[in-house]
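Example record used in the benchmark description.
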Amino acid sequence: MTALADRPQMLLSEFEELARFAARTAEGLRLEFIDGRLGVKAVPDGDHGRIIQWLTRICMQVRPELWLHPDQGLEIKTYRGGRARPDGALASSDAFVGAGEWASPEEAVLMVVEVTSYDSDTDRRDRQEKPRAYAQTGIPVYLLIDRDTCEVTAYSEPEGERYGKALTVSFGKPVPLPDPVGIELDTGPLKDWVR
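Model output (structure tokens):
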């Protein structure tokens, strides 16, 4: 007998219907479904948007064949199935053409990016659930830009439910994003976009 806490809050099909409804009726509401639980992402603030803009520009300069797709919904592999909407997904510019709202990241996504929001759910969502979900899905690199701790963590080498490597640096220090990304970030500008 499965404990009630182990059951998903809703079926995946119910989540997708709810997400479509929220997108039409609740401006700025962003829903995710990870480990069978409904999650709501905070609407990004201006500094959050500037960080994504900064990272997009760097990716375009160093890897012009790629694009940092903002807010592309991804199908993530967890034992209950799931849907995540990372702040950015690094892939070819045509990777999601014809894919719809929730795309399979397999082979297309080289890196996902999350920028922490100033909400009570960010610890569980961005630091615990997402690294596990992205590793299970086999996404090669997960970049966490943590505005609370003023640190950047580059997770790599997915191994089942976890990443085999995690390199954390303070804002201001360079961080190498391992292959298949192959970019080194100077994180100094991030100091200007935190509270």
